[in-house]
Amino acid sequence: MNCTSNLTASYRLILLGIILAGLLLRLMAAYLQPAFLDEGYIYNVTKFSAGTIIDELRRDSHPPTYNLLLMPLVHKCSTIFLLRLPGVLAGTMSIWLAYLFARRFSDEKCGLLLSAIVACNYNLWLLDAQLRSYGVLDCALLALLLMTLSIYKTGQPICCHKISSLLGWAIFAAAALLGASLHVTGSLAAVCYLVLLAWLPRSKELPSRRLPCALLASSLLPSLSWFLYVKSQSENYFAKAHALGTNLREYLDLPAYLLGWQVYPYYILDLQKYLRDYPGLLSQATTWMARHINPLYAVFIVMAWILLLTGMYLALRNNWAETLLALCPALVLAAMLLTANLLSVQVLQKRHLLPLCPVLLMFISLALVSIKYRSLRNLLLITAISSMIISAVQFPYNTKLWNQHWQGAVAFLKQRCRPNDIILVYHGYACYSFAQAYAPGQMLFNPENGKLVLGNGYSEALILPFTDRLACPEFIEDVKERQVFIVLNQYRYENAKDHLFDWIINNYSLGEHYHEDSYTDWAVVDVFQLLPRQPQR
Question: 143: closest CA among 180, 109, 112, 107?
Answer without folding.
Answer: 180
